[in-house]
Prior knowledge:
By secondary structure, the chain is an alpha+beta fold. It is about 30% helix and about 30% strand. About 40% of the residues are buried.
Amino acid sequence: xxxxxxxxxxxxxxxxxxxxxxxxxxxxxxxxxxxxxxxxxxxxxxxxxxxxxxxxxxxxxxxxxxxxxxxxxxxxxxxxxxxxxxxxxxxxxxxxxxxxxxxxxxxxxxxxxxxxxxxxxxxxxxxxxxxxxxxxxxxxxxxxxxxxxxxxxxxxx
Length: 157
Ligand code: CDP
Ligand code: ZN
C-alpha cells in the first residue's frame, strides 16, 4: 500500500541567526527565526512524512513550548521521524521538495542537503529531490522577508 503526504512551512528572516536549510549552513546576511534551528525545508519534509503516516504534524510531535527542542538541529527531529517510520514498517519511496527564496540561491547546496537528509532517513540521496525557486520578487519571499518550503513524500508499507 502506498501513502502520499504533503508538507508546507514558512519562517521569517531575522538578523543575527545562521541560515540552515536542509541541514546545511548557507552563508547569508541573515537567518530564519524559530524555536529550533528554523530549518524550513526539513520542517516541510517532516510534515510531509507525518502526513503520509497519518500522524498529525511537527508542532504536535515536537512542541514549541518544550525546552528540549530549543535551537535543536531539525535533522535530529528528522531522525526521530525516521524511527517512527521504522516502528511502523513504512519505507520512503521518494521525497520531492521546493524551497522558495528570492535570495539566497540554493542550487549550489542541494547535493549536500540531499545527502544529509538521506543519511538521517537511511535512504539513498537519489530518493530525495530539492528544487529552488524565486517568486520573481513577488510576495514575502520576493521581498526577502522569509522563506517557504513545500514537500511531498510517497511511502509504502
Ligand atoms: O526561471 P523560473 O522562473 O522557472 O525559475 P526562477 O525562480 O527564476 O529560478 C531559476 C533557477 O534558479 C531555478 O531553476 C534554480 O535552479 C535556481 N534557484 C535556486 O537555486 N534557489 C532559489 N532560491 C531560487 C532559484
Ligand atoms: Zn518550521
